[in-house]
Amino acid sequence: MNAQPLRYRQIHLDFHTSPACTDVGVDFDADRFARTLQEARVNAINIFAKCHHGYSYYPTKVGTVHPGLQIDLLGGQIEALHRAGIVCPIYVTILWDELAGELHPEWLIVNKDGTVASRPPLSNAWGWTTLDVSTTYADYVMDQVTELTQLYEVDGFWFDICFPRPNYSPWGQAQMRAAGVPLDDDEAVWAFARRKQERFFDQLTRHVKRLTPEATIFYNGTISRDMRRITAYETHFEVESLPTSGTWGYLHYPVMARQARTYGKPIIGMTGRFHNFWGDFGGLKTADQLLYECATVVAAGGRVCIGDQLHPRGVLDPAVYRLIGSAYAKIEALEPWLVDATPTAEAAVLAIGPLEEELDGIGTQSPDAEGAIQLFIELGIQCDLVDAEADLSGYRLVVLPNGTKVDDALKTKLDGFVAAGGALIFSGTAALADDGHTFVLADAPVHYVEPAPTTPSYLRPSGIDAAGSELAADYDYAFYGQAHVVTPLDGAKAYGDLRRAYFNRTWETFMGHQHAPVERSLEAPIAVRKGKVLYLAAPLFTGYKKWDYWAYRALLDSLLVDLLPQRLLYPQGSGWVEYTLHTQPATAAHAARQIVHVIAYQPRRSLQPIAHVDQAWAVAGLGVKVRCEQEPARVYLAPDASEVAHSYENGYLTVQLPPLDVYAVVVVEG
């Protein structure tokens, strides 16, 4: 089965099985296993060689077979799956290995505070023993990979838990000292950990390619905003993102996929069938919920992977695969409109700027970048998230996040982008020079004065054309974060009025239950534009991410009108309906296509921190305007090819959609 292309309907079959389970694989039936997957329309699945407990599920001579396993479970799975035409990359855990850590304490990572990176002693707290791949543990991993390729026909390797992690053990400290890394310099320590990670990836990738050149390779835990540095070691990207887990949420995948897809490699989006997190036996989504999550994956340009966990006895749960089959039947029917289709993007948000939090293995972006992506999705602006090395020439608008330090290379790139006719938005202290008052960008329209004296500041949207919104020109809207006082340069257009509160809330000066009201104008604008460059004195993207205030969305929507006219797409529907546009080249079977994915996010009220979308209902009155060079030959819904009401005028196709429950795909052909 080697050299198979990545599939659209995948499963990640977790199998982290405690040594306390003594009946591992006793009910495994290879034919029933494969048949269950076939009936659920699954055509790829990740299966386990070694799990976080450190045990292997095949007759290994390198590792340790699970004590409760009496059969070659991995081999039986591979044989049955290949007979059924199902691709099956092999899962091997990397940093987390309980058994190896117990047998080889010299491989353990030690945290900066001197504790071992593992579960707290004598507790049930979540966590795993974490190992250092720069020790001889790496040889153990290499040997097991070699063994697997000698025993089985390998389609690919799925290496898990591959994030960088500093090691302050005596071994780790000696390594850092030898490399000249100051142990009290956190930034230098983390940089060293990333270099160790890359050396290991290079070593392991070369090893795999020597053994099985056509195998797919993915290192999980690498989807962060610096993912460019590991692109050479992987065949594709996978964005692990179980939205209901409490870790990721429903905007993590849409944000990170928009960066992962920019590196010229296929991407896979991973959700789960679980009600919450991995290993949630007894937790199951509804059909509407799983379809919504799968639709979000393909709309952002990904193939779909659904996480499950195999019962220790080796039997797939029929109810789980009926659920998965209900979603995958729809994805399978849509594949003619997914294969070789490419998401469009007219705006790029730079994946740079200061981070406020970072979780191991889960990429985060700056608040301004995340807020910009959320806002653009809600407004239907087709966008990518790109790093500072990306080519910007294909975009019409670029967002430089608040707080970004701009070096000479980035300055040259942004100045050139604007000179070529591109539009640029920057906020707050982004691109501020060392003198603290000028901006390094050639076309910056303002002079920086000082931070606004109070938090919050107030935004009076006078002079901002907010037609169609509820913004009141005579009201002062709170900006809950730090705003900035600037003066417009000659020829620039100023928008709105920035105002201060009476005072900041302190021990001695406080008022009511929250902050003081507006006192007076600072004689400074909210935003300033000159030509195609817009400066935001109130970092509205950050504000939108943190406080979700509709007024910030309305302000930005109004300010974007002149910067981004004649957009690729204009939604006719609320911001909770997601519209994404793909293009698909002509083939012998069909003309060139524009494809609009329309997804209705229908959360219900809940006391939980993440809303659930486990119920859907028909949504009527939705539509979309799509920019088209000429009137198309056909407009229909995929996959049933039913015609939809539409009209064409002034370069735009307007489509009126029939009621949809969760997901509709509009095809504009010819």
Brief sketch in words of this structure:
With 670 residues, this protein is an alpha/beta fold. It is built from 13 helices and 31 strands.
Defining traits:
single chain; 670 residues; alpha/beta; seven-stranded mixed β-sheet; 24% helix
Mind summarizing the main beta sheet? 8 strands, parallel
Strand content: 15-25%
What is the average of the pLDDT values? Answer: 95
- The best one-word shape is globular
- Please state the structural category: alpha/beta
> Radius of gyration in whole Å, from Cα?
27 Å
How many helices does DSSP assign? 13
Would you mind describing this structure in some detail?
24% of the residues lie in helices and 23% in strands. The protein is of the alpha/beta class and 670 residues long. The relative contact order is 0.09. Mean pLDDT is 95; it is low at 359-363.
Topology readout:
Layout: E1 9-14, H1 30-39, E2 44-50, H2 73-83, E3 90-93, H3 98-103, H4 137-151, E4 156-160, H5 170-178, H6 186-211, E5 216-219, E6 237-240, H7 252-260, E7 267-272, H8 287-299, E8 303-309, H9 318-334, E9 342-343, E10 347-350, H10 367-379, E11 383-386, E12 397-400, H11 408-419, E13 423-427, E14 446-451, E15 457-460, E16 477-479, E17 484-488, E18 493-495, E19 497-501, E20 518-524, E21 527-530, E22 533-536, H12 540-547, H13 550-563, E23 569-572, E24 577-584, E25 593-600, E26 623-627, E27 634-638, E28 642-643, E29 645-649, E30 652-656, E31 663-669
Parallel strand pairs: 1-2, 1-8, 2-3, 3-4, 4-5, 6-7, 7-8, 10-11, 10-12, 12-13, 13-22
Antiparallel strand pairs: 9-24, 14-17, 15-16, 15-19, 18-21, 19-20, 21-22, 23-26, 24-25, 25-31, 26-30, 27-28, 27-31, 29-30
Helix pairs in contact: 1-2, 4-6, 8-9, 10-12, 12-13
